[in-house]
Amino acid sequence: MKYLTAMYISLSESLGIYTPDQLYELFTNKQHSMPISRHRAAIMQSRVFFFCAIFAVLVPTWSLIDLLFLPSPLWAELLVIRILSAIAFIFLAWQARKEPDLNRARWLLAGMLSITPLFYLVSDHWLQAYELSGTEQVIAELYALLPFVMIAGLTLFPLTLKELLFFATPMLAVVVLSSLPQVKSDIPQAVSTIWLFSLILGVAIFASLNQLRYMLSQVNRASYDVLTGLLTRRAGIEMLDLQFRLSLMSDSPLSILYLDLDHFKTVNDIYGHDAGDVVLRTAAQQLNDVVRKGDSVIRWGGEEFIVILPTAAPNEADDVINRIMHAGLGLRPDGAPVTASIGVAEVQADAVNDWKTMIELADHRMYTAKIQGRARSLGVNQAELLWPVAATSNKLAEKSVAQHEVAEES
């Protein structure tokens, strides 16, 4: 038991696993964020494209070797399935150039991995029908390596354990089926073949999971703000671009909220940046807790936040704003409620052509809300919502500002 525990710790450390959540992330993608899923999909599709493009050339080209060493009837039979396989690879390569999507990437990888085992099963059936010897037999035995090549190829894909088992199980079944001994003397060969395949599969699983773990750490570091845990501006731009295109494709509404915390500079000036960091973290946590499932909150910069509301019409955006206002964004160090000025934009009601215009429009409305007294939102058709504690909060905040200005002058 002690040996197994030490082995588990060593394996966990080699994969960079230190918490149950990190282990769960390697088992399934249910907890993976949108940036991670998109990044995985992009990597998987680009590598599927590369392999399919290569195989589309190499598979039919190999027929020249078959022509030199195999009987003509057998060469003609193999040429047919080689051409069909090449056509299938070309189709998969073409599909892999489309917009990255995790489900599409999985099916493309499944398609690529299924072509070779099917090719092997058909070719093995035809090869068994001929009496081959010498060089012919050597060429024929090379076909048996195809499943091994494909299982080794899994090392280049960042896959979860669940996905790896899904892709590897059919290939393992093909190897076991093709290795079943016909006579007792074939048993050692069958056992060694299955053992070798299992060994390569184990290496592939370890390499793929290690690649996924590294990718998760890098994407999380680049996509999430260290202070607030929200999406960074860079990751948020990718999300905005994706959601905007999805909105246009499905002709569905899409709203964004542009929030700027009121009088935040005075918190840093009077109470210090540590106190300001606490205010930012609390506001970010409150936003995350209040928005709908499927919405995205971005730290746009400093004390500015953007909330993406997919499928939300202006009235639904107002519902989210009301929840934010009533839940609050925490308290300032002086005990006053934290409020924000909010600008709203919606793709259909505002008839915008790109997400950058949406941002500019929401930013302009946020700035107008600040001019009109802060602690309020300004939306489509100048629709205005006031923070429930607007008067009290602004009075306390303005008092702090005045006291700070007096202190500076003296």
TrEMBL record:
It comes from the Bacteria. Its EC number is 2.7.7.65. Residues 252-382 form the GGDEF domain. The keyword Transmembrane applies. It catalyses: 2 GTP = 3',3'-c-di-GMP + 2 diphosphate. Its cofactor is Mg(2+). It is an enzyme of class 2 (transferase). GO terms for molecular function: diguanylate cyclase activity. Keywords: Membrane, Transmembrane, Transmembrane helix. InterPro entries: Diguanylate_Cyclase, GGDEF_dom, Nucleotide_cyclase, Rev_trsase/Diguanyl_cyclase. CDD domains: GGDEF. The chain crosses the membrane at residues 48-69, 75-94, 106-123, 138-157, 164-183, 189-209. GO terms for cellular component: plasma membrane. SMART domains: GGDEF (SM00267). GO terms for biological process: cell adhesion involved in single-species biofilm formation; negative regulation of bacterial-type flagellum-dependent cell motility. This is diguanylate cyclase. It comes from Amphritea opalescens. The lineage of its organism: Bacteria, Pseudomonadati, Pseudomonadota, Gammaproteobacteria, Oceanospirillales.
